[in-house]
Automatic annotation (TrEMBL):
SUPFAM superfamilies noted in UniProt: (Trans)glycosidases
Organism expressing this protein natively: Wenyingzhuangia fucanilytica
Domain Glycosyl-hydrolase 97 catalytic as annotated: residue spans: 265-414
Membrane-traversing stretches: none
Molecular functions per Gene Ontology: carbohydrate binding
Subunit structure: Monomer.
One Pfam assignment: GH97_N
Protein name: Alpha-glucosidase
Ranges where the Glycosyl-hydrolase 97 N-terminal domain occurs: 12-245
Needed co-factor(s): Ca(2+)
């Protein structure tokens, strides 16, 4: 596992021996190389907690861990935690520090610990990523389409003010490997902001550097991660980010329940066939609650404008509705309520906010416009947990990767362009990019599940897209997307009547046990083209696929049990389906399958395919 030789060279291999970290302490700097199966994928890269201070390796210690832990909710019910760890004692010109390196079969993790007052030291968490000039990278871009592919060899001449890099960064390696550069357990690292990525044109290398902004002793950095997979889709189910995160800090998690929620915001202005028009009023909310109760949907989310004025621990309710009656009605129907809060209404702190929400008998809060403030976000998660509230962060929040293990009440976050946000629709290509890039940071709130695609495109909603007919999707693709994008809270944005009119298609969403998965697999994935995801709950499998260009995806059912016959329901396109001109055409049919069968999922351009398989 570990070898020492002249020049203080150190090596640490993964449990299967295929991934190796090689350290070098020459020239008073600490550098690393990452080698996968004999091929170097990151070379000659500096790592430091006190940059420009000479460092020496004093001693090393090796640890081996192999255990399994149970999740509160997630893509897996239990996760194997198997790694080799190298603990490196360092001396930075009289200042002691420790570097922890963990090598998993599918990635490596780095963390520093510094036990000394930092008043005069100015620590910063600095790591270089010496990728090949032939590698390509993709980066999230807030609410815009993720950027890339950018060639590493071209970054020196690229305007990175225009193409601002963010984590999680996706790397398409020239040797057909896929990497992700990100961090985890930021929640356990007070004083550090979000990992910042940039291309250092002086050293000609991709770099991340986070300055420490506190005067506290006992500095603990986040874990910096380099995930390595042979298939791009496997990055989405890679468990290293969760394994390195701090263990669950909530003693009683019985109140934390993932699930689906209806949402009123995108439905305002929709007129049902009986002439009723949805708005911010009691009758509208009763309709949402009735549908939720009839279809076993756990939650109903009431968005902005339910209040008009904010004071610490008190809100003046809108005259448009009687919230007390809505709360009582939801309780009678056994539907839990989630309430939005827009911090732009006033910064009154959260000490009174969360107890106030709890006093209203809310199950959770959708928290908007708090920005990328790490300490604020950390406190909001902790304080919401103290009031037994789920929390869903809105509008480009801190990507607290791994936090769903530490604080499982952090149920999801909008680290993407939630569909139609800012009244802008996104394309099938943008969906694929966000599903493969933005989703690497953890649970994602994207608001998929529009069934009345034609009505939305025709502008029959107050908050439909600004440009008519700009939503390019199909009802089947929307159903598939709710499974493909992992979240502890799947927020479906359409009117109850839109789902009732397609109740046979809605069955796929209704039966899907959100967040409570025993196993998850990405069966097919190709950037800008397609993705197909399978998730198991007990002995049932749900599979969702989408295809940008259209085509046939072969889905081998080799994950089914031998000797069993399964019923499968297909939710699929018809010959008439067209994502631009006939987006709501679909068919539902039932058949039987067994292990070894190969399903040919035929998908038109911009559409999707769903399967529900059960014994």
């Amino acid at each position: 596992m570990l070898s020492c030789s002249s020049g203080n060279k150190l090596e640490l291999a993964s449990p299967n021996g295929l991934l190796t970290i090689k350290l070098n302490n020459s020239e008073n700097k600490l550098k690393y190389n990452l080698v996968e199966n004999g091929s170097e994928i990151i070379s000659n890269s500096e790592i430091s907690i006190l940059q420009n201070v000479a460092v020496k390796v004093l001693e090393t210690k090796i640890n081996q861990v192999n255990n399994t832990w149970e999740t509160v909710w997630g893509q897996f019910s239990e996760i194997k935690n198997n790694y080799n760890e190298l603990e490196v004692s360092l001396d930075y010109e009289g200042t002691p520090a420790t570097l922890y390196i963990r090598s998993y079969n599918s990635g490596v993790a780095f963390r520093f610990k510094l036990d000394k007052s930092t008043k005069d030291l100015k620590p910063s968490y600095y790591i270089q990523y010496g990728l090949s000039s032939n590698d390509h990278i993709f980066s999230p871009a807030g609410e815009g389409q993720p950027i890339g592919p950018l060639l590493i060899g071209d970054l020196a001449s690229t305007d990175l003010k225009k193409h601002k890099l963010k984590m999680p960064l996706l790397v398409e390696n020239h040797q057909n490997k896929y990497l992700s550069l990100l961090e985890s357990d930021l929640v356990s690292a007070p004083g550090f902001g979000v990992m910042k990525l940039y291309f250092d044109k002086e050293s000609n290398v991709l770099t991340s550097n986070n300055k420490f902004t506190s005067t506290e002793n006992n500095i603990l950095t986040p874990w910096r991660l380099i995930l390595v997979e042979n298939h791009i889709g496997d990055l989405l189910t890679n468990t290293v980010p969760l394994n390195v995160a701090a263990a669950n800090k909530i003693e009683d998690t019985s109140w934390i329940k993932p699930g689906k929620t209806l949402w009123d915001w995108r439905v305002h202005g929709y007129t049902a066939k009986d002439g009723f028009t949805y708005g911010i009023d009691n009758e509208s909310y009763y309709r949402f609650i009735d549908f939720a109760a009839e279809n076993d949907i756990e939650y109903f989310l009431i968005d902005d404008a339910w209040y008009t004025h904010v004071e610490p621990g008190k809100m003046t309710l809108s005259e448009k509705l009687d919230l007390d009656k809505v709360i009582a009605y939801a309780k009678e129907k056994d539907v839990e309520l989630l309430l939005y809060y827009d911090r732009r209404q006033g910064d009154y702190g959260d000490d009174a906010l969360f107890p106030y929400y709890k006093s209203l008998n809310m199950k959770g809060i959708k928290y908007g416009f708090m920005g990328t403030k790490v300490d604020f976000t950390r406190d909001a998660i902790r304080k919401s947990a103290e009031s037994n509230l789920l929390i869903d962060f809105h509008d480009a929040p801190v990507p607290f990767t791994g936090v769903s293990r530490t604080y499982p009440n952090a149920i999801t976050r909008e680290f993407c362009h939630a569909q139609q946000d800012s009244r802008r629709a996104f394309t099938p290509k943008t969906f694929i990019r966000m599903a493969l890039i933005n989703a690497l940071q953890g649970p994602l709130d994207m608001n998929n599940g529009i069934f009345d695609v034609t009505g939305v495109n025709a502008g029959k909603r107050e908050k439909g897209p600004r440009k008519l007919n700009s939503l390019e999707t199909t009802s089947v693709a929307e159903a598939a997307r709710t499974l493909i994008v992992f979240s502890g809270l799947v927020c479906i944005p359409d009117a109850p009547e839109a789902y009732t009119e397609k109740s046979d298609l809605f069955e796929f969403i209704k039966e899907m046990p959100v967040g409570k998965w025993d196993e998850s697999k990405v069966l097919h994935a190709k950037m800008d083209t397609y993705i197909s995801t399978a998730r198991r709950s007990g002995d049932q499998w749900f599979i969702g696929s989408v295809h940008v260009e259209g085509g046939t995806l072969e889905i081998p059912l080799d994950f089914l049990e031998e000797g069993k016959t399964y019923t499968v329901t297909y939710y699929e396109d018809t010959k008439e389906t067209n994502s631009k001109t006939n987006p709501e055409a679909y068919q539902v049919r039932t058949s039987t399958v067994k292990k070894g069968d190969v399903i040919k999922a035929n998908i038109v351009a911009g559409s999707g395919h769903c399967m529900w398989i059960r014994p």
